[in-house]
Amino acid sequence: MMPLEYWLLLIAFIGIVLTLAKPVGLYLAGLMDGSARVVKAGQTFENRTLGLIGANPEAEMGWKDYALAVLLFSVAGVILTYAIQRLQLWLPLNPQAMANVSADSAFNTAVSFITNTNWQGYAGESTMSYFTQMAALTVHNFASAATGIAVAFALIRGFARHSISTIGNFWTDLYRITLYLLLPVSFVFALVLVSQGVIQNFSAYPDAQTLEVNKYDAPKNSPDGQPLKDDKGNAVTEPAEAKTQVIAMGPVASQEAIKMLGTNGGGFFNANSAHPYENPMPFTNFLQMLSIFLIPAGLCYAFGRAVGDARQGWAILGAMTAIFVVFAVVAMSAEQTASPLIAKLGSDVSMGNMEGKEMRFGVAASALFATITTAASCGAVNAMHDSFTPIGGFVPILLMQLGEVVFGGVGSGLYGMLVFAVMAVFLAGLMIGRTPEYLGKKIESFEIKMVSVAILVTPLLVLAGTAISVLVTDGKAGILNPGMHGFSEILYAFSSAANNNGSAFAGISANTPYYNIALAIAMWFGRFAIIVPVLALAGSLAAKKRIPVSGGTMPTHGPLFIVLLIGTVLLIGALTYIPALALGPIVEHLVMLAVK
Amino acid sequence: MFKQLKPAILMLLLMTVVTGLIYPFLTTGVAQLAFPREANGSLIEQQGKIVGSSLIGQQFTETKYFWGRLSAAGTYPYNASASGGSNFGPLNPALADASKARVDALVKADQDAGLKRVKAVPIDLITASASGLDPHISVAAAEYQMQRVAKVRSLPEAKVREMIAANTEGKWLGVFGDARVNVLKLNLSLDAMK
Fold it and tell me: Residues of B with CB below 8 A from A349's CB?
């Protein structure tokens, strides 16, 4: 069982998240309907700015225009982000003279950041110039987060309005979310992070004179630059030494703040939030965990308020919290056990599974972080999930596969969960033979079609992508760990990409043309093949008449509905993925139990 | 179609300027004024030379130094331009090999120092960190190495214990996580004693 300290950490975390949900939600609701004081104060400037870029802030959009705006904005983002990476050698702020990124990697990264996935096939500190990190990647940390929240706003309006054909103006939503929410909070958060040791500079990498000369075996290359192999296929090495430590630098804090707040998760460095310059203290770690859930939790409250019944929002938040807590306890408990291979060496393993974990976080804060980052579609990591115990690794995989609806990404978590809520109401309606309704809106054939597409697209991408990859040579070539764990690496990669999470079983070598393209496809459709039907759902709901509550209406704010919603999410997730999970983490766990 | 194309492109450019240039530059400016040491990497300087960072670990293999976590950073251990973990799964034989090699190296270091003892090695000392740059080890891992370092440096154990304590950061808020010892700072203060 978990020690008291683990429980305290979990309770403190969830307690603060739930406490902040209401104030954050109130502010979000004010941004959504324009009633926030700051929106009114800046109205003239907003109209002028939006007018200048041709956004026509006076007019609201129907769902098709809204979807078109989202898609065009995102496609333009992919093109610009791709171009900056391909040209970075000739652009400013590149003190390490980073080369232009390869075509397939740049394409993957562009799609990854625009879809709020932030899957990273590259290592930041040896690939991206400061300019690319800022003007390409940081921008889409903001833009993709704001897009997700905007789509959630549109869907909420669909429920809140009736007999009307529009669901808001995408450009106005984007403007307000970025300027009044993401930017100011990120700015303050970034400065707090710097005060704790997160770096923020444009320096070239300094050379530190280390206490010892670092002697190591370097792989030997043939004259044409290929690694040499001996007769047995092992790499040939030669002794080498490093007299200094070249320490990677950069404008980290400004990206770190929005990386967490916008549930993006793309690290400035390869090691992400495990890197001491991204996450130097237990305190920064706790703040990073909180900032992942801050907006997703607040949006639930904003939803309840907008539909005129705060309890509706608490019910959604309650379902999310219940699933989250159970998964967190499982992961934190599992990680207390070290690998039996290490225990066999006669070492003191009382600290738990420390492989791939940082001393300043330890097992509890690492396992909790892993649960939070995959419950939300953040994907930042402060420990290497690949080295988790089988059950510790099972939790993040399944949480992603549930569709990133347990808090989920900013915006995407709420609209994903509302899709499940509509499905839950539909299932309940089938059971009792009544036309289902949710929040006074009749759920009919069109809505169920859109909901079904939104729910089915990610399993299709995950399972087909995994199946193809374990069959083709290029897919199998990426595996690091032998046996079923290698299968889990591929399953994890596609679960992460299609659900726009971005974390990885990072042993997989995914910076290859095959994975760069396959995962980019999964990320793109995992994002927009859900956003478009969700906006269609919003448009259709907004146009409907509101039907009054009657004796036959199923209440959707009580415990019964919460249980029904949890059941729907878990049932659909379990039915879809248990066979695949059985081949990976589940069988690995059984094998581990047998190791003596 | 084209009605939304113009705002799509212009909004992207506007956001690139505001969130991609103004925001990071402004953050850098304020950070450099308010927290210059932290913003520039918490670097440690001695006689005008940078010897490391208090947040970034270094590789130690000599018996007179405390050793840190194993590091699976790129190309060589504690490569601060190529962070990363081993990513070995819990049943990967390579994981056992790496840990076994570390246990053997620790035992050999003890023997070289003339110490004969059998003591379980704390797990953080034989596993790789997530970043490959972990600056810390547990207090138990420092105490495990205390006798060796004291013997090699001909220092009383009590003195070394004192220095471990001086470089220990306690549990967060006295409750969460583990107390941890900064290996580079500890070794620097040992070297400074002469």
Answer: 123
